[in-house]
Specification:
Strand content: over 45%
Helix content: under 10%
Structural class: mainly beta
CATH superfamily of the largest domain: TonB-dependent receptor, beta-barrel domain
Mean pLDDT: 87
CATH architecture of the largest domain: Beta Barrel
CATH class of the largest domain: Mainly Beta
CATH topology of the largest domain: Maltoporin, Chain A
Amino acid sequence: MEKTVFFLLFIFSAIAATSQQKHTLSGTIRSQRSGETIIGASVRSINGTEGTVSNEYGFFSLTLPEGDYEIEFSAISFETSVEQIKLTENFSKNILLPDEVKDLEQVTVSATGKGRTITGTQMGVERLSIQEVKTIPMLLGERDILKAIQLLPGIKQAGDGNSGFYVRGGSADQNLILLDEAQVYNASHLLGFFSTFNSDAVKDITVYKGGMPAQYGGRLSSVLDVKMNEGNNQNFELSGGIGLISAKLNLEGPIQKNKSSFLLSGRRTYADVFVPLAKDTAIRKNRLYFYDYNAKLNYQLGKKDNLYISGYFGRDYLKFDQQFGINWGNITGTARWNHIFNSRLFSNTSFIYSDFDYNININNPNNDLDIYSKIRDLNLKQEFQWYAGSAHSMRFGFNSTYHKIRPGDVTSSGTASFNNFYLQDRYSWENALFATDTWKAAPWLNLTYGARLTSFAILGEGDFYNIDSDGNVTDTLSYAKNRLVKNYINIEPRLAASFILNRTTSVKASYVRNVQNLHLMSNSTTGAPTDKWLASTNIIKPEIADQVALGWYKNFAGSRYEFSTEAYYKKMYNQIDYRPGADVFTNDAIESQILFGIGRAYGWEVFLKKKTGKATGWISYTLSKTERKIDGINDGAWYNARQDRTHDVAIVFNYQLNRKWNLAANWIYYTGDAVTYPNGKYVIDNQLVFYYTKRNADRMPAYHRLDLGATWLLKDKKKFTSELAFSVFNAYGRENPYIITFGQNEDDPSKTEAVQTSLFRFVPSISYNFKFK
């Protein structure tokens, strides 16, 4: 491996030539209280303009001319530390930052750090701290990070109370969701109303809406990168909580103080515990619950090596009497090895496992069926970060993933009315090479440029098809095991620039191309567990998106406020939609049931945030349009995508009344979803049948609601803290439409009536949270 590293260094040696007379300060930044590494900590020279931030593992590297420096280290929720550094040679220094302590006389809340990065080139990126997530009032009091990010500009919720989301015109499957680098294919519990992420186990949340770095790939619209806590390597801590529907417990502590630690976290709903007490005997046989577990171990092998092992296991169970049942869940596992070659070269090697499956059981007198589907990944990722000098910082590496998809097995008992059938397993091997350089080209100009080269190999065994324009199978091609069916190779360039107007203002521009080879077939907006994942085939081509963006960024009032506005345009190719009357769940030749075309999305986002003081919060607004154009749908004309909305507004407010009480409120408004309403009706065999013409040409009513919350700090001792959290979801009782159905009027069958179903009105909650430390 070291030969490979030095070969790559030789290739880029010209870039570093100007830095050879300088020295490098490097190290790892950690929390003094817990020993956790700190992501995104700022490292800067007080008397100069040079600076950097710590990476995902707390490592930093800053190259400066020889001399004496005052170096400032700062991070969200930590006290700032200043170190006197005499730099006469390469120097390594690990930093411990004290946790922020609030003044007893005057409560001052810091929601984030010292403002949005003005000089950095990254666009369309949002970060939320767990402290912010915990103060936002949410459905049934669950602290849900997927619902929290829906309050940010450019990110839209998939439905009332739902954890699914859309980003800049993309569909739900175009979001790459990572937990410690492992893909999470279905990130929701309880049919989409809660996310798989237990906030007590989460350390960092970063969302890339556009211009995503080259180390990320495989999705068109966004990356949600979630990092788990590592565990306290100083002291044992036990925390937990109990709410209306769930309870959770979190244990962390040192295995060997200062060197290794562990984290164990679990959560479970318990409504099913009370179901057997119901008076109705039919209700007693129902079940609906979920649970999830997070675990992590980390060990410092030496001064230059760290090992991390983390895992997630979650499952949902839904059962109605003895007639119908479904269970689904995710398993992920990640083993990572960090190695510091020297003060400028950092390496991370990851072995990653991801698995999602669901099982449906149907029992009735005529049919006894089991339906099973699964997607599984094995992934190897190698990444290097090379701090070439004061002007250049590089990331490069490779990623190799083997996918196995079992689209569906249907098995039945002898009394069933049809035979067993098995959709063919699909195999593919996805590889990528990536490289990015961030160049400080001038005091007023920073550039990031790079590319991602991807190869998606479709492998046998199995049958593949040729399809005519009407969706009929014209030929079947059979391939042996591991035989190459087709290989799609794509280059994904990335380019971004930051023009620094002054210390508090900048203008940024970016272009990115993304490629997606896995596709989700879904009939719902809620991210149902029975949605079907497909890999690209000889007919289903990789989806491609080109996005350009332009933005203006400003920190003001001493960085207590930040303002940003971005405009974007995205063109999408090889977009997928259903043929009218399609059946994608029992058809082996699924290519016969879908159509292909292009898409476009464009919009304008505005974000204003107050970051410090007793009152904090933000206002976000998105104006956008999302359309598709596919032959065979709406006569080949442009039509609204299902996730198209014109306006989205979110107002988030948090007020620290005193040391005991924190108050919070959210107000949300958005244009109604694009839907297809019937244009006519007719009767066949005395059955009413509706006639549909234009897809997604109608609108649901507009959505809006107000959520209120309050947190009461009961105890805040050195060894123990506790609190009560109160909230009301949809406080003014707006009957927002979840679904609208059509049927005959009972009094006059000649008339058709629309029936609106609403789910959540005046939903109060209370939860108790505690921590022993």
